[in-house]
Design goal:
Number of helices: 4
Distance between the termini: 65 Å
Order of helices and strands: HHHH
Number of domains: 1
Largest sheet: none
Mean pLDDT: 83
Number of strands: 0
């Protein structure tokens, strides 16, 4: 059962939310309902990790990532000398 709710919000926030809702083809009411629902769901993890993401966990470690970033930075520095 739907119930009406009156909210007082900053006018700028409302306008941005309307634009966002329209660009995502959803009503502002539904957008707010979905947001409040996601906040109030009872689960241990605030983020759902998909099986694909879970399977990629641990594929690369932080040290390897630092080396890749360092190598790429060196490459760019040399390229744009």
């Amino acid at each position: 059962m739907d119930t009406k709710l009156t909210l007082s919000l900053n006018a700028g926030v409302i306008e941005k939310a309307k634009v966002y809702a329209k660009s995502n083809q959803v009503s502002l009411s539904k957008l707010i309902e979905n947001y409040l629902s996601s906040l109030t769901e009872k689960n241990d993890s605030p983020v759902t990790i998909t099986p694909l993401v879970q399977s990629l966990s641990g594929v690369i470690n932080a040290d390897e990532l630092k080396n890749i970033n360092s190598d790429y930075t060196d490459y760019l520095a040399e390229k744009y000398k």
